Amino acid sequence: MLLPRRTIARRNFRGAWKRLRRAVSCRLGSENVRAHHRLGSHTVEALEPRLVLDSTVVFNEIMYHPAEDDVAGEWIELHNQMAVDMDLSGWRVSGGVKYEFAQGTVLGGGEYLVVAADPDALREHFSDLENVFGPFDGNLSNGGERLRLRSNNDRTMDEVDYGDGGRWPVAPDGSGVTLAKSDPDTGSAQAENWTFSEQIGGTPGALNFIGSLPPAPPKSTNLLGFYQFEGDYLDSSESAHHGAVTGSVPFNNSGFEGQAVSFSNNIANYIQVEIDASPQNNATLTWGAWVKSAQPGGDINTILSNDNGGWDRFLFHDAGRWAVSSGFGIQRSSVATSSEWTFVAATFDGNSQRLFVDSDTPVMSTRDPSGPSQTFVHIGRNANGCGSCAWSGLIDNVFIFDDVLSDAEIAGIRAGGAAAILALEKSNDDGGNNTAPVDLPSLAINEVASSLDATFRVEIVNTGDEPVALDGIVLASSDADMTDFVFGDQMLASGGFMVLNATQLGFGAEDGDRLFLYGADKTGVIDAAVVKDRLRGRSAQHDGRWLWPSEATFGAANQFAFHDEIVINEIFYHGYPQRAEGDVPFAKSEEEWIELYNRSDSDVDLSGWRLDDAVGFVFPPNTTLAAGEYLVVAKDAVALRAKHPGIDIVGDFSRRLSNRSDRIELRDPANNPADVVEYYDDGRWPEFADGGGSSLELRDPNADNSRAGAWSASDEGRRSSWQTYTYRGVATNDGIGLEIWNEFVLGLLTAGEVLLDNISVIESPSGAAIQLIQNGSFQSDAIGAAPAKWRAIGNHGSHGRTVVEADPLDPNNRVLHVVATGPTEHMHNQVTTTFVGNRRVQAGREYEISFDAKWLGSLIPGSISTGCNAPRCSTCRPAEARRASGIRRSRPTPRRLTTIFDTSRLCPRPALRSPCRSRPTIPMAWRR
Prior knowledge:
The protein contains five helices and 64 strands. It is globular. The strands form 14 sheets. Strands 2, 53, 55, 56, 58, 59 and 61 form a seven-stranded antiparallel β-sheet that branches. Strands 16, 18, 20, 25, 26, 27 and 29 form a seven-stranded antiparallel β-sheet that branches. Strands 10-9-4-3-14-15 form a six-stranded mixed β-sheet, covered by helices on one side. Helix content is 4%, strand content 32%. It is mainly β. Helix 2 (407-416) crosses helix 3 (418-425). The longest helix is centred in the middle third of the chain and has 10 residues, at 407-416. Strand 39 and strand 40 form a beta hairpin.
C-alpha cells in the first residue's frame, strides 16, 4: 500500500484539473528576427494568496453550543478520509480553542477522533466512545468562529469558519444537536456541506448519519489498494521505485477528487505498487480509476497493467477507443476516448473480463488472459516496459479489489467516488457509537412573524405525502425563561399548515431568538429558525431558503415579490498581468468588474439594490438600468472609466473577487436574491477567464447562469490583429544524419486555437530564394475543408475542426484555423506538410521562415520555433491588443469557446537542444 508523505483534503467541487504553466525567455540575434510588432519578455503572474489545504484529516462534527449552555460539553471531531493511518504527532487545533496532539498519536484510516473540553464527561455520556483527547484550552463561540487544523510544521491542513446564520444551519446553536458534515468526504469550508445531527448530543467518534455511505456487500471483498494521489507517495514495498512517481512529482492541482497525479507519456514516468493482480494468483479482480487523457487519439496509453509481454491484464485506450487485452492482443470497445475526466474499470473472473467506461453496465466483455504475468501492478505505463505504451494525462482514485464487483457496486463507485470505494471495504459496523436513525416527522417551520408584531405567530407545514400525528412534538425557544410548547393529540394533513400565536405558545420572541422544533419527547431536532425584526418565510423557489415575503400569509403558501429582470451577465475576476517590458515592471492586474444586464422590457430602478457575498456594493439612489441595457460595477470605477470612456460604470465595490472561486449575489431592496452566480476556475468553467484576458460571459441572458455550460470566455480573438513573423537561421547537423528532413511540422503544447496564413519557408533567401511550402496561402481551398497538401493528425486534426476558414477581417481571404484539443508530441498530434518536390533541408544553408498569425486566445505568450536542422528559436507572442478589457454588449447567442493555444516543445532530439531551455513554443519543425 502506498503511504502518504503529504496529503491534501478533497474539495467537493469539480475535480478537474488545470495545467501548470511557465514561460522562460530565449534570444536570437536581432539580425535574424524581425516582426511587425515589438515583442518583450514575459513574466509569469504570481499566484494570489490562497488557502491550500494539505490534509485528508478534516473537521467532521462540532458541538459548539450544547443545550443548557454547558461549555464543558463542547467538542470537535476529526475524520481521516484516507484508507491509511495518519500520524498526528505535533498537529494542533487552533482558533477559539487550542489543543496539540502528543507524539505517537495516530488516526487510523477511515476513523474518527474527538477533542473535548471535558473528555471524562464525554466518555460518561458515550460509554463506548474511544479516541477522545483533551481537554482543549478556550471555548467555542456560539455565534461562529474559524477553526484550523495545523500540522507539526504549522501548515494549515483543514479549516472551517462556521456560523449560526446565512447558509449555516441554525439548529446546532443551542438545541442540543451538533454541526455535522452531511458526507464525511466533502470539504469543510463550504456551508452547504454541513447540516445538523439527527441525534441530540451528536455522534462523536462515529458516522454522522447511518446510510450516508453505501452499505458494505454481504460477501468478503478486500480493497487491495486505493491510491487517491493527495500529495507525494512512498512505495511501502521499498522496491527500486521507492519514492514519488518515477520521473515526476505528483501534479499539485485539482483533479477528479482533490489532487491527481500527472504522467508525461514517458516510459520512466510511472508508479509500481506491490499487488499481485496476475490471473494465475488472483482469478477474481476488479480495478479502475478516473482518468483525463492528454492524447485521446494516441496509441496504447496504459492506465493499469501487470502485463508480462503476453497481452495479459492491462487497462488502456488505443486509436481513439477504450480497450483491454484478452491474451491475444488489443480488444477495443466501441466507446471513443476524450480529453474529459472518465471513469474506467474492469472486472476479471478467471474466464472473462468486463470493461466499464462512464457506464453502470459493461460496454464490452472479452476473455480474461490466462498467461502468467507480473506479481506487481504499474500505474501509468505497461508493466512489460513497452516504450510507446506510457500514459499521458492525469490519473486519480485508482482502486484494486480482490473480487468481481457487481454492476450495482461499480455504479456505486462511479457515483460516489472515494467514499463509495472505502465503503465497500468496510463492514456494516457503524463505528461502535451510532444509534439507529431518529424517525422524525416531515414537518418544517415555514413562516415566522416579525419580533415587532403586536401578535407573534409561527407557521408549521407538513412537507410529506402522509398526515402527521403531532402528539408530543415540541416547539421551544432558545430563551431559557420560556416554557416549551407541546402539541396535543391532533393530525396535520399532507401539505397542511398549522399557525400558532403567542397566546397559544405561551411565549413571544425577540430579535435573534431561535425556535427549535423537536420530535416527540425531544428525541431529535426536526427544524430550526431565527426570529428577526421582519417577517420571514421559506421559499420553495430557493430550495427552502429563509427569505423575506412580500406579505404575511399564515395558513397558506408563502408569497414573495421576486425580481428576475436583472442578470449577472459578465464577470472579470482575474485580469491578464502587465508583462515586464523595458523599464515597465511586471504587475498583477487590479482590474475587476461585474456586468449587469436588464433582460426585461422595462426600466428597473436599482436604488437600494446591492451586490453581496464575494463583494459588497449598494447601488446609490436614482440608479436606473434601462431595458436591454448594461451596467458595470467595478472595483476601481475611476480607473475603468479612464480605460473605457462612454461605458456606464459605477463603483467601487468592497472586497475582491477570488481568482479561484467566489459567489456573487445580487439582492433587491427587500434583501431577496435577484440573481446568484458561483463561479470556478476549473472543471467545465472557461479557462481563459482565469488570467487569460477574457471575462466570464453569459452566452444567453435567459440561460441558467448557475451552470458552467451557460458561460463562455469572451471572444478576445476578435480584438487581436494579424501579425507577421519572419526570422532566418542556418540549418545545422542534428546528430542523426544530414539532409534527411523534408517536412514542416506545426504543433501546440496545450489545447488552443490560432489562425495562420501565408506560411513560407525559403531556402537561401538572399540567393536562389527557393520556396519549399506548398499551399501556404490556402487561397484555393474550400471553406470548411482540410487544406490541400497539409495533414492535421491526432488532437490537432482528428476532430475535424482544423479547416480552412474565411479571414474574419477579410471575407475574400482564406486562412487555416488550427484547433488543438491537447498538446503536440514528437511523432503525433501535429499539422504537417511535405516540401515541394520532397526537397530535403541542407545543413549549412540559410532558411527564412515567415507566417501571419491571428491569436484567438491566450493565457501566456506564445513563441515560434523550428528545430531539427532549421532555425529553432525566436520570441514571438500575440500583440497586447489581444488583451482587451472584455467589456462589451454581450450577444444572446451561443458562441465558440476559445481555448489555450500558446505553448509547445522544441524538437526533442538531443543534438538540437538550445540554450532556450524549455521556452514555451509553437514549433515549426522539420522531420523525416
